Every structure is written in C-alpha cells, then in structure tokens.
Amino acid sequence: TWKWVVGPMFLYLCERLVRFWRSQQKVVITKVVIHPFKTIELQMMKKGFRMEVGQYIFVKCPAVSKLEWHPFTLTSAPEEDYFSIHVRIVGDWTEGLFNACGCDKQEFQEAWKLPKIAVDGPFGTASEDVFSYETVMLVGAGIGVTPFASVLKSVWYKYCHDATNLKLKKIYFYWLCRDTHAFEWFADLLQSLEAQMQERNNAEFLSYNIYLTGWDETQATHFAVHHEEEKDVITGLKQKTLYGRPNWENEFKTIAGKHPGSRIGVFLCGPEGLADTLNKQSISNSEADPRGVHFIFNKENF
Question: Which of 80, 98, 109, 136 is the most buried (most CB within 10 A)?
Fold first, then answer.
C-alpha cells in the first residue's frame, strides 16, 4: 500500500510547504473601503504578485484565526497596481476581519493599525477564458458578480488604452440579486464602463441586464413612480432594472439568432441550481452542425 500512498503524500507535503512559504511573504493593505450592504473592499500589494481576470486567492488573518484560510475572488484587474477582494460580512470570520480592520469604528484608521494578512495564490478559474471568445454571456448571482468585476475592469482598461487587439467583441452581462443594497458597490463600475463605451461610439459592446428578484410593496410603488426617468432609480444606469428572473430559453435563443455560426462562452458564478439551468440551455441551444452556433458553459459554484 505504501507505494500508492507515498506519491500523493509527497505532493501534499510539497503543496503545504509552498503555501507556508507564500504565507510568509509580506502583504500590505493599502486601503480598506466600506461599501453598502455590509461589504468591505481590501486593496493590497505583494511583491511579485501576478494575476489574471477571474482568479481567486486564499486569505488568512492571524488576528482573527491563526489556522483558517478562506477563498476570495479577486475583483481588481491585472492592469491595476494593486489587487483587491470584496468581503461580505456573513459569519464569525468575516465579522472578525471587519472589526480587525477597524470598520466598526467611526474615526479614521492609521495604516499601521491594520491587521497582518497572509495570501496564497492566485489560482485559476474558468473565467480566465473570457477573452478567448468573440461573444460571451456573464451571469452573476448576488456576490457571485465579483469575478466579473475583474473582467469588466480589465475590459475598461483595455478600451482606455488600445482595444484593437481585443478578440472579445460583445458581452451579455446578467446580474441577479435579491436586495437593492447589493447593487450599490458595483453600479459605479458599470456607470464608468457605460460612459466609456458611449464616448468611443461603441455602446453596443456591453449589453447588461440587472434583475431584482426580491422587493416589497413600498419599493414597487417607488419604482413605478420613477419609471419614466432617464436613469434607473436603483443603479443610476440608463439601462432599467428588470424585476423577477430572466427567461433563459428566450435569452439563449435571442443571442443565438444574433450570432449565427459563433462559439459563445457562457460563464456563471452562482448556485448549483442556476448552473444546471444554464448548462441545459447551453446544450439545447447549440446546433449539431459544427458550423452552427455553440454555447460553451463554464461555471464557478458557491
């Protein structure tokens, strides 16, 4: 038996040694931003750190726990001089990180008071392949929008500098969220991207659909009163927020009709149930003819 065990054990020990070595490398928290809906953004720097869009890292905060490592998707773009994560406060560890960063205090926090952070990674995900397609569908559910924040930021930077070599020509972006507060931290990025595309006369590059899946009677009345305004009352974007859930069969058929003969990447960061739905739609809407339209499904579940 030892012949079969010694190999995997050796690889496991090597992986643990690499993680220990990485955890000893100095990480500097350059900024902590408090966003609405109990979400904080940590901007960090680390010597020799290289990332691609949609990747994730493991984070350990010894001030909270000396042993726990937690995975977080990177929300910064490779073009930026820092890397960042968005952390939603939903449990004991995230609550401890929130307090350790001084987010529970009103006064300004000095940089030297911020806790030490250990980072392992980055590690690759399916989202890295976004720029391999001419047309993509990006689907995020709730906080699952984080990998696409990295993608859209990177697209924004590429358009600011030189987009002539960019293979990606069309993005269909879908974001499903239960609460209006969750839109606030991400809407600024969409507004910047929307303005950038309009300045360059390429407003059709990004087609985004934001779905609010939960609301009460008071909110519905408020939305109805402001429906005729130029910008959406929730996000401040020109594209109006939609209510309910998307009809995925109609969405896939519409996109297939607009891009015949294309390979379309479908990228999801969301729950398993939504993954099953999109996977079935990708299969049923792909043509048997190799020259026809094909949907290639990629997923990250949480």
Answer: 136
The model's confidence at residue 10, banded by pLDDT at 50, 70 and 90, is: very high
Residue 184 makes CB contacts below 8 A (sequence gap 6+) with: 35, 36, 37
The model's pLDDT over 263-290, given as tens digits with 9 standing for 90+, comes to 888 888 888 888 888 889 888 888 888 7
